[in-house]
Amino acid sequence: MSDEEHHFESKADAGASKTYPQQAGTIRKNGYIVIKGRPCKVVEVSTSKTGKHGHAKCHFVAIDIFNGKKLEDIVPSSHNCDVPHVNRTDYQLIDISEDGFVSLLTDNGGTKDDLRLPTDEALLSQIRAGFDEGKDLIVSVQSAMGEEQICGLKDIGGKN
Description:
By secondary structure, this protein is mainly β. The chain folds into two domains: 15-84, SH3 type barrels; 87-158, CATH 2.40.50.140. 8% of the residues lie in helices and 52% in strands. The protein has one helix and eleven strands. The chain starts with 18 loop residues before the first strand and ends with a strand.
């Protein structure tokens, strides 16, 4: 009897899940989905009816939000898919280190120093140019499933 009491341990950390279930038929274009363990943004959804007794199937084409790779999946529309919790947070850029890490100012006045510069060349050159000119820059950090990456940039003025 005591053996059976320990089967319900949670694998989530601090009670927060990285994903939540959502019925495949309700996921739309520009929504998010987990394909092959990667958080993705849906760029195309098509639904097909399969025969007299089969389920309708949803064909998802999605782009990984961190590395830009295209992934596809086919799921029965009545089944649940994992959907990642995707958050965007804005931080002020304080410094860029020699090894490509950025130092960001958090809302509570602390610093966040564990993020690298983005791999997107256009965004990277905008950040470096603005920083070199001494502008006050706000970077948007997208986070999902334990990963974070700089995905946007705003110039809030500064030295001209």
